[in-house]
């Protein structure tokens, strides 16, 4: 997997808007990775979420920004489950509000098609639209690291679509959340590697930085928080695989993963920049390529506070007697 991304490594400032790398996209498509989890009869590779998670993590480790998850795990997945065809065009997905708008849509301005989900009364519908379709208007925007996060607006009365079941909409929400948790965890693991590399190779007062107890404590906290976030995310991923997205406590597990990853990011980013010192704040050093994405991604598809609230509500719901079974099951 590393060989796929090895010559596509990005470095330097990320302030400018990032565009989808068409050459890398084509290469991944030729390798069967763009539709990694799609059914073979629809042109996919019939892999699962564990493989998709490793692909996403590999992209993060190499600083690659590309909408693999939005295309394969979200947009094309929804097309499959509602019975709509998916060709080779690059896609993203959004859920419009009752006012016909969606904000912070990943990669919409660089996609070729957008899967749009919208409400009509108490029901939801989906359509696969070309980005040039006059029914939708895309206003470009970016997140903190320059990834496209655009606004989409549409006249709901002009759209015709296929019904989306409530369970499918819930799955879309949880899939989106788990995607970001996987990406955050990959960034935290890379931050740990960079911090260990720096503190082991730099000397101060005649000895390695890694020999100072204060630095050791900071690195240990980074390792512990990254491991906690990864364990929570892997627990949710395991439940996903074993239950095919039908586990009764799946929302709780995804919420725990997002909560742990979100709070871990605060500790990991702070300690890593303290341990690396001034050089870690420069564009020339690679640390920012992982600390800034971790901070950005932890707030997408639900804020840390919102996922904390889901965990709290679930605990309150089961009460003190049911808390252990909620955690242990």
UniProtKB/TrEMBL annotation:
InterPro entries: AcylCo_DH-like_C, AcylCo_DH/oxidase_C, AcylCoA_DH/ox_N_sf. One of its GO terms (molecular function) is flavin adenine dinucleotide binding. Keywords: FAD, Flavoprotein, Oxidoreductase. It comes from Mycolicibacterium brisbanense. The keyword Flavoprotein applies. Residues 181-299 form the Acyl-CoA dehydrogenase/oxidase C-terminal domain. Pfam families: Acyl-CoA_dh_1. This is Acyl-CoA dehydrogenase. PANTHER family: ACYL-COA DEHYDROGENASE, ACYL-COA DEHYDROGENASE FADE28.
């Amino acid at each position: 997997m590393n060989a796929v991304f090895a010559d596509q490594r990005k470095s330097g400032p990320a302030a400018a808007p990032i565009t989808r790398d068409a050459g890398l996209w084509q290469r991944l498509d030729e390798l069967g990775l763009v539709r990694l989890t799609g059914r073979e009869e629809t042109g996919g590779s019939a892999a699962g979420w564990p493989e998709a998670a490793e692909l996403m993590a590999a992209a993060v480790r190499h600083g690659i920004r590309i909408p693999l998850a939005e295309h394969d795990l979200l947009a094309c997945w929804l097309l499959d489950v509602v019975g709509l065809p998916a060709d080779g065009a690059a896609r993203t997905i959004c859920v419009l509000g009752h006012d016909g708008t969606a904000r912070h849509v990943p990669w919409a301005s660089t996609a070729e098609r957008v899967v749009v989900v919208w409400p009509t009364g108490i029901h939801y519908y989906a359509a696969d639209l070309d980005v040039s379709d006059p029914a939708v208007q895309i206003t470009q925007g970016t997140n903190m690291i320059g990834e496209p996060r655009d606004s989409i607006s549409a006249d709901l009365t002009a759209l015709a679509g296929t019904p989306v079941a409530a369970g499918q909409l819930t799955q879309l929400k949880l899939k989106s959340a788990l995607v970001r948790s996987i990406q955050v965890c990959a960034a935290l693991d890379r931050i740990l590697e960079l911090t260990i590399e720096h503190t082991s190779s730099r000397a101060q007062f005649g000895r390695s930085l890694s020999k100072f107890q204060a630095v050791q404590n900071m690195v240990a906290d980074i390792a512990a928080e990254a491991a906690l976030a990864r364990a929570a995310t892997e627990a949710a991923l395991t439940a996903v695989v074993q239950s095919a997205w039908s586990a009764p406590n799946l929302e709780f597990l995804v919420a725990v993963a997002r909560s742990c990853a979100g709070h871990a990011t605060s500790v990991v980013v702070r300690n890593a920049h303290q341990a690396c010192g001034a050089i870690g704040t420069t564009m020339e050093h690679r640390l920012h390529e992982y600390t800034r994405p971790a901070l950005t991604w932890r707030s997408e598809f639900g804020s840390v506070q919102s996922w904390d609230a889901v965990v709290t509500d679930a605990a309150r719901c089961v009460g003190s007697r049911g808390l252990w079974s909620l955690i242990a099951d």
